[in-house]
Amino acid sequence: MSKPLLYLLAGNGSCARWWDDVLPHFQHYQVVPLELPGFGDNPEPPCSDLAGYARALLAATRRGSAILATGVSALLVLHALQRQPGHFSRSVLLSPVGAFLWQRRLPALMSPLPVRKAIHWLLAHRPTLFARKFSRQRWNAAQYRRMGEGYARCRAFVPYWDLLRADTALPLLEWIEDPLELVWGDQDGLLGSEQAAAWSAILARADLRISVQPGWGHYPWIDDPVGFAAWLEAREPGFVAHTKGGRLHLAQLAGQPVPMALNLEQAADPRLPALLADAPQALWAVRSSSFGEDQADAANAGLSTTYLRVPGAEVHARVEDLLGAGVEQVVVQRFIEPRVSGIGFVRHLAVELEWVEGHLAALADGLVSPQRAVLSRLGEAWSSGQFPTVHGLTQARLWDFLQGVLRVFHYVPGDVEWAWDGQQLWLLQYRPISDYGWRRHLTAANIAEILPPQPSRFVEYGQRRAAASIPAIMARWDTRVLQDNEPFTAVYDGASYINNDLFLARLADWGIPSSQYAGEVGGAAPHLPLRPWRVLRSLPVFLRMQRIARGQLPRLERQLRRFDRELAQLVEQGASGQQLADWFSRFYVFVVQGNLCIATALASSGGDRLGRPPTAYGSLDDCPHRLPWETDPGTPRPPLTDLPLQAFPSWPRLIRLAHAAGLPGMRGYYLQVREWYRDNLMRVFFRLHHAMPEAERGHWFAAHPHVRSRDGSFWQDGREGDELAAGFMIYPGEVRGVLGQDILLEDSLDPGRHAQYQAARGVVARMGGRLSHGSTLLRELRKPSAVLPQVDAGWLGREVILRDGQLQLA
Q1: pLDDT digits (tens, 9 = 90+) for 3-14
Q2: Which CATH number fits domain 5-240: 3.30.70.260, 3.40.50.150, 3.40.50.1820, 3.90.1070.10?
């Protein structure tokens, strides 16, 4: 019987010979060290992005095999599994890289190219200078020589640092469901086990187990090859991460104040008597830690009894009671007698608090009503009430504590149970929030222009999976967006809306009033004042934002064509609807990130003094891919025809120079890029629609069950905002006609209705922004038009006059 296959993949700079010491010690695996493009003796050039390396890894490995990967290569395994779930039967990831990249010192140090090249030369030619970084043990000369040779032959070392960015490292990884084993060494000076909590939040849906190995450094297969091989083949995967007890243990590893606790899977665990003997007078809490509780998509809290104030002599019996009831794991935790306790629904922008005096059990049992407050960084509109100083606990201290818990879990919003004993705060529980109506500001503006009120299951699937990954592109100019961790869209009453908080948080930090944002995207926004000092302090951010966003525009075509090729390959392979939906999730991230870069370039374009070249709307006579609700791939399309992607607009040399120099006056050309981009996206959507297998269209292209029923802007907890959306003229002119017939009255502007707009005398929309696609289309058509939120519904069917953005009865 052949041995199962195990691939070994080391991190940046590695070569196959780095594994020489450990290879002879494997007994149960057939072991194959890997070298990816640009590494070791692999003749292929380095890949241009992490997606390229993930594809190379998939191509180089056999489906159903096992893999051990370290450092940055562990991240590649995750990207590969995100693309092809189940490709690896076992994935062991040692000290994975990717968490907190924007806060770590090493990526910042390696950012300048001369520094990278210098470090690379030293690693290749003077590896012993880094001996203490490699290991706390002293290696022999041959081992250091092998390390140096690996770095010397690694052509990917220098460019790899450009690929390893906070905005590209983690997209869509929260949707991985494969079994994963993450391991850290407690002597690793480069990547310590305090990152384990962050990875449990990043890999929120994976079947995740975590272990911390005593005595291991960064290269345990070199320090102790015999022990390393034996550990790997013994298949001791560690503790389950996504449980109540698992998260408490992870928080403890990250330095959070967690009461003494033990996770048990059997009542006869020998560690229990030792724990109780350490504190013979203590009282204990005995709680279930079921594998089905506290998951990313379902809380399922309170399925089993919780025992509080249990004397040490009774703990064993209570553990047996819970295990006998079918609970997989039990947490035995030292009981804290609190003066004040509560629950914090915590995100970086805000904390929504409930608290009681005494123990939280009184609230759970319905014996008392909690006090409540909402604390927010954004301002008064987002806040409600205050946390008073209680038994010495101040609002500032509680805020800092809750934000500290949030940080170790990679800023993923969580439900935090806390207790104050009069001296310090204690963390009793952290769990991801599966469903909660935040005081977060949402809007239907913009999204209502491109998707029907009831989009297809297909587009809603992609939109929801992409929502948390999309904003990372903004970290290229302001990394605070990663701490905010706000999704691009959020759900209210089962339907998706644009999350205004994502953008308003940036404006608040920059000191820019919210009225500017509302005018551009449509709808209304809560008040944010102009703060001149913050604006001045943010000037470097604005310059960086302008440079990066403009620089991204010419790259859109290459990335778009790559996705188009991927779609063609899926069609050739006869991909299922699920495979197409997962591909669409990745594509959706790219689509919206590209639009964010274009919108940023437009916002800093400084007018259109350099000209207004024609857009794609100038030639829409024979365009089967342009139709109402065209942004939903589930929308019915005409029969498939060949619609090749169009080349990036050709600009005169002087315009290209103005673009590169960041000169003002480029708005016309950036509008041209935006509509070129959208037209090409619709060509891809056209092919995507026809790629869906006929038998699966009834499911994927059916309407999503929840309707987007809210117009304008509102709060996610259901409250209506009191801000009024502003009206504005889109294109001047005077026309007379019947409202709803000659002069169209639209709830929102849909650029796919170009034929109807072209035939109308004028167009009025109740909702829309100055920079929306629909507004651009109407300007291209030179059609008298306006956004007027307060049009009297009684005027429908009556003769009216639209004059330069004003509507009146004839």
Answers
A1: 899 999 999 999
A2: 3.40.50.1820
Interatomic CA distance for residues 18 and 145, integer angstroms: 10
Q: CA nearest 173: which of 52, 79, 49, 53?
A: 79
Give the whole-angstrom CA distance, residue 679 versus residue 683: 6
Q: Which amino acid is at 394?
A: T
**Neighbour order of strands in the sheet with 806-809:** 734-738, 799-803, 806-809
149 burial type by CB count under 10 A (0-12 exposed, 13-18 middle, 19+ buried): middle
Is the pLDDT at 1 greater than 70, yes or no?
A: no
- The amino acid at residue 444 is A
What fold is seen in the domain 256-335?
Dna Ligase; domain 1 (3.30.1490)
Which position has the token pair 């069950």? 705
- Contact (Cβ atoms closer than 8 angstroms) between residue 524 and residue 504: no
Residue 633 near residue 456, CB atoms below 8 Å: yes
Cβ pair 348, 334 in contact under 8 A: no
Our CA dihedral for 80, 84, 85, 88, rounded to 10 degrees, sits at -60
Question: Six-digit token pair at 431?
Answer: 């769990």
Burial state string for 384-405 with b = 16 or more CB within 10 A and e = fewer than 16: eeebeebeebebeebbebbbbb
Q: In one letter, which amino acid is 399? A: W
Which residues, 6+ apart, have CB-to-CB distance to 554 below 8 Å?
Answer: 648
Q: Which two tokens stand for residue 503?
A: 């953008």
Look at residue 710 in the predicted model and tell me its pLDDT: 87
Q: Which helix (H) or strand (E) holds 552?
A: helix 539-552
Higher local confidence (pLDDT), 557 or 294: 557
* Residue 572, both tokens: 């050739």
Distance CA 417, CA 436 (A): 15
pLDDT of the residue at 681: 95
* Predicted confidence (pLDDT) at residue 366 exceeds the cutoff of 70: no
Q: Domain-by-domain residue ranges, the chain?
A: 5-240, 256-335, 441-493+542-700, 727-809
283 φ/ψ angles, rounded to the nearest 5 degrees: -100, 155
Give CA–CA dist 603/609, Å, rounded: 15
Contact 472, 482 (CB under 8 A): yes
User: Token match 């991230």: residue?
Assistant: 589
Residue 302 — pLDDT band, cuts 50, 70, 90?
low
CATH superfamily of 727-809: Phosphohistidine domain (3.50.30.10)
Q: State which amino acid sits at residue 498.
A: I
679: nearest Cα among 645, 706, 656, 712:
645
DSSP letters, 340-353, are EEEEEEE-SSEEEE
pLDDT digits (tens, 9 = 90+) for 121-169: 999 999 999 988 898 889 999 999 999 999 999 999 999 999 989 999 9
Q: Is the pTM of this model over 0.90?
A: yes
Identity of the residue numbered 301: A
Q: DSSP string covering 650-709, please?
A: P--HHHHHHHHHT-S--HHHHHHHHHHHHHHHHHHHHHHHHHS-GGGHHHHTSBPSS---
Whether the predicted pLDDT of 462 surpasses 70: yes
Note the pLDDT tens digit of each residue in 658-714: 999 999 999 999 999 999 999 999 999 999 999 999 999 999 999 999 999 988 889
Distance CA 355, CA 378 (A): 22
β-pair type (65-70, 88-94): parallel
**Adjacency order of strands within the sheet including 283-288:** 261-264, 330-334, 283-288, 307-311
